[in-house]
Amino acid sequence: MTTAERTAPPGTSTGTRSAVSHWFSDGWITTRRNLIKIKRVPDILVFTTLQPIMFVLLFTYVYAGVINIPGSSYKEFIMAGIFAQTIVFGSTYSGSAMAQDLKDGIIDRFRTLPMSPSAVLIGRTNGDLFINAVSLVVMMTTGFIVGWRIRSSFLEALGAVALLLLFAYAFSWVMAFIGMSVRSPEVINNVSFLILFPLTFISNAFVPSDTLPPPLRVFAEFNPVSALVSAVRNLFGNTPPGSPVADNWAQQNPEITVLIGIIVLLVVFVPLAIRTFASVSSR
């Protein structure tokens, strides 16, 4: 389709396609661009899949012997935490990639094209969703090899995977916004770690939250990552039997809490990211 056809006013013979069709088409083109980039630079996929394997082996073989989970094995307890940590850390690629595209001037090239501004962000987050899905498959396969098992039904397990990927997608928009807010790609990793380390490590991902000191326990119980981990443990059937019942609504209803959190992240950060993109691309 030519530029004239894309910019023709509605009602003309060349402008029959709707704005919604254009939006989906633009989103698919930019998504395809990011998937092709993964194919041409396979190092991206190689290193994003090596990291989850390393975490699974590290926690299941190094720490499993020293951390006791009453009524369960640490291997089954830890896998939900590793899933959550990996998909949250994987979202940083959205931020670093957007910062790099701004630095390289690729965004300036996109500005000259008759395309929706949000399409660039949609393509970026969709591409990262694919990477997170591959990482999740690798982690689950590695988990099965080291002894982790799903103790629930197929539909419940499918729900756990869906929650992980939806949370990863929503968090990619957060990191894309941050990536466009910093001045250089070198800064994004430092900023990301300042946000992600407290979220992942001050949670119930690696140890039960009731073992933490009181101030950290309060943070962990209302941490969205803790809700995600609890929901995934429940849906995979890996919650230790006899675990104490939390005294707050978020941990008593982790699946609903995660869904609410995903909706809030998307409602807040999708418009913020699109507005920021329009601002930085017009500098």
Features:
single chain; 283 residues; mainly alpha; 13 helices; 75% helix; elongated; disordered N terminus
Report on the structure:
By secondary structure, the protein is an all-alpha fold. The chain has one domain. The protein has 13 helices and no strands. The N terminus is likely disordered.
Nutshell version of this structure?
The chain is mostly helical and 283 residues long. It contains 13 helices and no strands.
Rough outline: elongated
Q: Could you report the average pLDDT, rounded to the nearest whole number?
A: 81
> Structural class, please?
mainly alpha
Give the radius of gyration.
21 Å
Number of domains: 1
Unreliable parts: 1-16
What is the count of β-strands?
A: 0
What distance lies between the first and last C-alpha atoms, to the nearest angstrom?
28 Å
Set out the fold topology.
Blueprint: H1 3-7, H2 19-40, H3 43-63, H4 74-90, H5 92-104, H6 106-111, H7 117-146, H8 154-181, H9 185-201, H10 214-221, H11 224-236, H12 249-252, H13 254-280
Helix pairs in contact: 2-7, 3-4, 3-7, 4-7, 4-8, 4-11, 5-7, 5-8, 5-9, 7-8, 8-11, 8-13, 11-13
